[in-house]
Amino acid sequence: MTPSITPGASRGRRLLLTASAGALGVGLFLVGALGLTPRESPGGSDPNAAPVGAPAGLREAGSSADALATDIAGLQQHLREKPGDAPALGTLGLDYVQQAKATVDPTYYPKAEAVLTRSLQIEATENFTAMAGMAALEAARHNFAAALDWSQKAIAINPDNATLYGILADAYTQLGRYPESFDAVQHMVDLRPGTPSLTRASYAWELRGDTAAATEDMQRALNDAATPADRAFTRYHLAQLALDQGDAKSALTQSNAGLAAAPVSADLLEGRAKAEAALGHTDAAVVDFTSAVAKVPQPSYVLELGELLQSLGRTKDAEQQYRVFRGEEKLLTDNGVALDSDATLFEADHGNPDQAVTLAEQGLRTRPFLDMHDAYAWALHAAGRDAEALEQSRQATALGMRNALFHYHQGMIEKSLGHRDAARTELQQALSINEHFSPLAAPLMHAALTELGAP
């Protein structure tokens, strides 16, 4: 029976989404699943088959940067011999986008745009591979309206390709068009139940606050995972689901299981570090965070390490990480990536509140997603504009997602407005979800609850 994401039907779950703080990201979809020709792959009628000549195992979203580099080198050599091969150019563009994400090197994005544009110049009508590549590129740069447009164009050519509906769902999600994103995920699951579709279905449930269904679908995605990369990916998100609900022990177990299969995974090291910090094993957490950042200087990882160090009184070390964070953000903007929630929250907590508001307003124009509304709310609060902040915060919690940070922010905003009962309710909700959601904010939450007379 085909898995469903419809509430009350199959409890299958987890979507695959973005980009900065805690979403799954455009990256998990299989590049090779797009095929290289419209509607049918060169070898037969399966629209989800890998392209002929694609090295086995190099098309998973979780593929290592080394494996992708090998694949890229092979495509570059092929294109030196056949420079007019539009499908190969499209595939190379997709690989460049994925390599940018795997290495956190946004200089691959201009390269991706150049080869994808060239591919579309050679074949503009039926070239859904390059169209999907443009959708992935625009999503990676947080230009989700353009990502939506490109994914719709690709689907118009190949409406039976499940992978394309994953890209479509990601764009709808980040644009805050949740019913349409859930429909796209359902269609992806119906077409091709498996790890990519089940991870997206999982996230769809998580957004609506059904963490049990989210975990079940992610477990099903793990059971279906055919490669070490996909198994590591699903283990990481199972750890995140557990940690986000206050179960640090399960998160640690999942992270360790993932690292057994993928010992060099920066994602899993970061996940284990958060679990260790929540359990009070701060020395081990610093070691794992430092290792993760050394492997992949993801801005969110750098910021997490900095805040952990600050919570431990290691102010100079924390400031060094914050300088690295600013450098990484500049590198992203220099290569066309629009900054949003991470940069906004950093400025609100550690920098200039007015700059945080400006960043949030820019971010909302391209990515009106839940965590962008939350970041905007916190920026407005930091700037002393609490009435406006409360409206934004309520938009962040409107779907029912169980997110301790969202409820903490809303509780502190209510407290600043003098709404003591509402503040207690929101802060106690944050406490019940995950009392270790932040090494810096959690102590402030406890202090606020004490001040409000909460037990």
UniProtKB/TrEMBL annotation:
Signal peptide: none
SUPFAM superfamilies: TPR-like
TPR repeats: 162-195
Keyword 4Fe-4S: no
Annotated keywords: Repeat, TPR repeat
Keyword Lipid metabolism: no
Gene3D superfamilies referenced in this protein's UniProt entry, alphabetically: Tetratricopeptide repeat domain (1.25.40.10)
Protein name (database record): Tetratricopeptide repeat protein
Organism annotation: Kitasatospora nipponensis
